[in-house]
Amino acid sequence: MITHTSDxxxxxxxxxxxxxxxxxxxxxxxxxxxxxxxxxxxxxxxGTAASVSIGAASxxxxxxxxxxxxxxxxxxxxxxxxxIAFCSExxxxxxxxxVMQSFWSPASxxxxxxxGNWVQLHCQYPHLRDGVLRVxxxxxxxxxxxxxxxxxSADELEFVCREQGLCVAQVRSSEEWNNHAHxxxxxxxxxIEIIKIGEARPExxxxxxxxxxxxxxxLDLTKVIAGPVCGRTxxxxxxxxxxxxxxxxxxxxxxxxxxGLGKKATFLDLRxxxxxxxxxxxxxTADIFVQGYRPGSIEKFGFGxxxxxxxxxxxxxxxxxAYGHVGPxxxxxxxxxxxxxxxxIVHEGMVGSNSNKPLPLPCQALDHATGxxxxxxxxxxxxxxxxxxxxxxxxxxxxxxxxxxxxLGRVEGLQTKKPxxxxxxxxxEKHESPFGCIEHVRPPENFSETQPYWNxxxxxxxxxxxxxx
Length: 469
What we know:
- By secondary structure, the chain is α/β, with parallel strands linked by helices.
- It has 17 helices and 18 strands.
- The strands form 4 sheets. A 7-stranded mixed β-sheet has the order 9-15-14-13-10-11-12. Strands 1-2-3-18 form a 4-stranded mixed β-sheet. A 4-stranded antiparallel β-sheet has the order 5-4-17-16.
- Strand 13 (about 290), helix 13 (about 305-310) and strand 14 (about 315-320) form a beta-alpha-beta unit.
- Helix 16 (about 365-390) packs across helix 17.
- The chain is globular and about 65 Å long.
């Protein structure tokens, strides 16, 4: 049984997540959790969310290990350390300099509309920034953006921008979100879906390896935080992870550095026939395919779940999206902070703190939790492939994770101080890399036999050839 936690809700939440594995074995006997919220300055139970999502991924790794070796392991996990892992990008440094400096564009942030309501603009990529500025007909300067937004109502601006593929969200209250058509569409979806999508023979992983995912090959077609956290987590358990991007696509280098630990990285442009064929060659011997593009967008290049299951029977196909695969917003772009604004999290923070400005969570909790849930689902599906065969799809979204976080309840935490770098120094470790010396948050979970770790520092995108060797 789970032990040593002062919050019984943590036990219940982890048990509920584990039930989604549809596994008769009670793996929960192998984990001990310590501590309770609040860890970070928020009334939302972010520490609980961190320990449950990381704990679930850890247990899934141990189940793969047990199935391939016959040996048991135990896990200990501090809720405090799990919460720090959710803040990893804020603590990462290269050559003693924080990577997250000068991160935000002047056009990004929360702005008042003509009625005093709040709307968030997410303009971190040049094409998103330029598109929003065209709609607003203003310069890339915060005062100019504010004046331009004041000519709109928040819901009108949100709709017009999203119809053009841009990233804007009205700041809604929880009540407004619950009454929204999209909230109703995803309300009954589980936070993780693990679905069999094809037939294939069982595949048993080799014995005598050093880590749970040794010899497992992962194609990581993701960016920003949630998807890359999934790949980074699988790499910490020994997987051979290849991050695949295209040179023409924008990226945020600080997040590449933080989430690229233990990965290779190559460029392949799926619009190019030669590069498309190279990805199909990599796919032939891959075990897990993780993609974080909007629902429907990668299918046109031949890499939808059914097409991949035909090309590589036995594949584990992991798909992450902002708003889920159903409902009126299913095809829209989104990021963690936008989902927080749209679904009531930011509004509740503002009201709870008696602030006159929107108050997001103190970390990208939806991103990190979704990434760990994706890794959990991937490993559960991998175990199912070993046991019964088949090709499997794992489906998660930031909005579904947001609903799950909301249902964890609240704690009096707004006055809590975020831990400083000095206070969490024992959770940091270093890796040399082409970027320089990266100091980063280590994996927070402790295994009794195969401690998670990354065998290399992050590399720039496109650094490696498209080869598993």
